[in-house]
Design a protein that fits this description.
The complex is a heterodimer. By secondary structure, chain A is mainly alpha-helical. Chain A has seven helices and eight strands; from the N terminus they run αααββββββαββααα. In chain A, a hairpin with a 7-residue loop joins strand 3 and strand 4. By secondary structure, chain B is of the alpha+beta class. In chain B, the strands form four sheets. Chain B has a four-stranded antiparallel sheet. A three-stranded antiparallel sheet of chain B has the order 9-10-11, covered by helices on one side. Classes of the chains: A mainly alpha, B alpha+beta.
């Protein structure tokens, strides 16, 4: 005796069609989103890793944005330092010219007033602002850091502080973005304002030229030593920028690995499921219309 | 004694039997598509022979009974599998809604506003006295708070929707159990009177399957085709002819409806059927996720507030809390998360009291990578929640697919045993029709013989 089979095929056919339809829908969704993971349940581990990936990507984006914000500040600092160095060069040649014993009183007076002009320009440079902030004021960026003040030892008072701001550039790496103005312009190994004032006094009194020249030299050397901060900072930004671009590529590759759909595979799955769906429907139509023994009974 | 009369009575009996068989076949055909119908087969038996001396004369055929072809074991298996499917269906449907709230694969979830908040602090560090960047921090903090508020309230709404579903399921259980008890009563009456209760048993099977889909049950067969039905944990639903209704009662702590049987709280013991799935999502999954959101929200609020208070605002005043302090017991932190300040100058970016200092902005931004939530960074903690939700859906979906396949298999087996085959019935129909034709023909022949016997000796 043969094994009796379930005479009703419709249940199984419908289940088969539904299963296949689900495959078609899944493939279509993957094709339209380009992702193999479209809900947390599709791949919980990948979805959880994606959260970490998103967090890191957002941070890298923000680091890149930090860099572009800081870049402007460092560039203004660097070009201001160039102007300061140029002015110092001028001051040194003027000082040598003024200390030449052959000059008349009125010539020395004129050199002294040129030197005063340089001092004023220097104070102006020391009060440079970027986006409304004094860049040589330490962290006290809303207060004008340098004011001419006869009672100050070098003739210019410093109203800023000696604090330094740092900005984070990447995970665990931050860059100081300012040098306090007192360290630049009133450095203990060479005070710019002091040296300029000393030379002005020497020109006016026609004594002490050697000391004044030496003071200018020292101030020049000091500022040259300090200005590299801005150049180095800019260079570091460039290095970090390319590092971050690399990291961004890695994160995006990781994201594709986690949730990206293999489009070739999905396309082929989709056409396979489509063909299968057609075949199932054709077969179902045929099976359900299949005659029974009744069709062959004599009437 | 082999007389014409006895031959006639044999053939009349045969005509009766064939008619009965034809009517069974017709009934099978009529019910070919009736859910739960089990085919019947005809059992003929030979009538007791009449002994005369050494001779034994057959006395024809009897239609013994129309035997219903069914397997109680398969029905029980189907009930079991239906309970599993019911539980998984309602669990997956509930969790899919939860899942969609945190769908990080499409960027809807908490990670985006969380990252944006910490990024706004980083951005502030590049120019701490800039008031537009300060406004940016406050609005990012507000977005983060709103995201927590919305997620939390969406979860609470889903929880109360499920609470309604639980009530509906309980009332469905009660309707079905009273229906089954009524059928049970009729079945035992019919059985005791010696009639065939198959049709009612089939109706009861359908009702039991619906009941299984709603709640996990045990079915114990008793006398007279009676059954006793209990919940999976043994609380009575139907005993004898009586059904015992389940009740719901508001839990004063959770505000949710607990399920009671005979005055006993059985909520936590209902693990299968739709009711089981609904209770699991309502009482376990959603509360656990809400608790994680609360932990995340309150940890962020507390850490950010503490760090803010360690710094200075743009005017050099000591920093104040950025967020309103979360509730002490954590519970409700996500729902009540809010930004405490609206004046951008109050954002505590400075670490030394000057407006240009960014030290505290850096320290606030650095919280993103510190283990401030249960020993993990905010993102890591949140990704754990995402994994938990995804895993619950993924496991249940896999089990659901398996359960569907098993159910289909059992249904195939039931169909193979009890389903009506049109071919089979057509063959039977032809067979009984031919037998009937032949018997009718015999009646004609006997009638002719009778005539001959009556007219015997006449001219």
């Amino acid at each position: 005796m043969s094994i009796r089979v379930d005479p009703s095929l419709s249940g199984e056919l419908i289940a088969g069609i539904n299963t296949n339809q689900q495959e078609v829908n899944t493939d279509l969704q993957q094709l339209s989103t380009g992702k193999s993971v479209n809900s947390l349940g599709d791949n919980p581990a990948a979805a959880a890793a994606l959260v970490g990936n998103d967090a890191e990507t957002a941070q890298v984006d923000q680091f890149q944005s930090n860099i572009s914000s800081v870049q402007g500040l460092l560039q203004v600092g660097d070009s201001t330092m160039s102007s300061v160095v140029n002015l110092m060069t001028q001051a040194i040649s003027l000082g040598i010219e003024g200390s030449n014993g052959t000059l008349s009183q009125s010539d020395r007076q004129s050199v002294a007033s040129q030197m005063t002009g340089i001092l004023q320009q220097m104070v102006g440079l020391a009060n440079t602002t970027y986006q409304g902030n004094y860049i040589f004021a330490g962290t006290d960026t809303q207060t004008e850091p340098f004011t001419v003040d006869a009672s100050a030892p070098d003739g210019v008072a410093y109203n800023g502080n000696t604090e330094v701001n740092s900005v984070q550039l990447s995970d665990g790496q931050s860059l100081p973005i300012n040098v306090p103005g007192s360290q630049l312009f009133q450095n203990s190994s060479g005070d710019i304002f002091g040296a300029l004032n000393q030379m002005i006094t020497a020109l006016q009194s026609n004594t002490g030229f050697d000391a004044a020249n030496t003071a200018l030299e020292n101030a020049f050397n000091a500022i040259n030593g300090q200005r590299v901060f801005y150049g180095n900072g800019g260079a570091e930004l460039n290095t970090v920028t390319s590092f971050l671009s690399q990291e961004k590529i890695e994160l995006s590759t990781q994201q594709t690995t986690l949730v990206g759909a293999d489009m070739g595979e999905v396309t082929s799955n989709y056409s396979q499921a489509e063909v299968q769906q057609q075949a199932l429907l054709a077969a179902s139509g045929k099976i359900l219309a299949e005659p029974t023994l009744f069709d062959y009974l004599p009437t | 004694m082999g007389t014409l009369d006895s031959a006639l009575s044999i053939i009349v009996g045969s005509l009766d039997a064939d008619q009965g068989a034809l009517s069974v076949t017709t009934n099978n055909l009529a019910n070919a598509n009736t859910p739960g119908y089990d085919r019947q087969i005809v059992e003929f038996s030979e009538s007791d022979p009449i002994q005369q001396g050494n001779l034994s004369f057959g006395s024809g055929v009897t239609l013994e009974q129309a035997q219903t072809v069914r397997s109680n074991v398969l029905q029980l298996q189907l009930n079991q599998e239906t309970q599993t499917s019911g539980q998984l269906d309602s669990f997956v449907s509930g969790m899919t809604q939860v899942e969609s709230l945190f769908n990080e694969t499409s960027g809807t979830g908490l990670q985006t506003p969380l990252s944006a908040f910490f990024s706004s602090l980083q951005q502030l560090s590049t120019n701490p006295s800039d008031s537009s960047l300060r406004v940016g921090v406050i609005s990012a903090a507000q977005n983060l708070a709103t995201a927590f508020n919305q997620s939390s309230s969406a979860l609470t709404t889903q929880q109360s929707d499920l609470n309604q579903s639980v009530e509906q399921s309980v009332s469905q259980v009660n309707t079905l159990t009273s229906q089954v008890a009524q059928l049970d009563n009729q079945i035992s009456g019919i059985t005791q009177s010696g009639e065939d209760p198959s049709a009612l048993i089939e109706q009861r099977d359908v009702a039991l399957q619906n009941l299984s889909n709603t709640i996990g049950i045990n079915v114990i067969a008793g006398e007279n085709n009676n059954i006793t039905v209990t919940t999976g944990n043994g609380s009575p639903l139907i005993v004898g002819d009586q059904s015992f209704a389940l009740q719901t009662q508001t839990n004063t702590t959770t505000g949710m409806q607990d399920v009671y049987s005979q005055g006993q709280d059985i909520t936590t013991q209902i693990s299968s059927g739709q009711l089981g799935g609904q209770i699991q999502v309502r009482d376990q999954q959603i509360p656990s996720i809400l608790n994680q959101l609360d932990t995340l929200a309150s940890s962020i609020e507390n850490s950010v507030n503490t760090q803010s208070e360690a710094g200075y605002d743009v005017n050099g005043n000591p920093g104040t809390a950025l967020f309103t302090p979360p509730p002490a017991g954590v519970t409700g932190a996500a729902a009540s998360m809010a930004v405490a300040i609206s004046d951008p100058s109050l954002v505590a970016a400075s670490s030394d009291g000057t407006s240009g200092s960014n030290g505290n902005a850096n320290a606030l931004a650095a919280l993103a990578n510190q283990n401030i939530v249960d020993g993990q960074t905010p993102s890591n903690y949140y990704s754990g929640t995402v994994f938990q939700i995804g895993n619950a859906v993924s496991n249940a979906t896999a089990e659901q697919t398996a359960a569907q396949q098993v159910t289909q298999q059992i249904q195939n087996q039931i169909g193979a045993l009890s389903g009506v085959s049109l071919d089979e019935e057509a063959a039977n129909l032809t067979q009984y029709q031919q037998a009937y034709d032949a018997s009718a023909r015999v009646v004609t022949i006997i009638s002719e013989l009778m005539n001959e016997a009556i007219n015997l000796g006449q001219d």
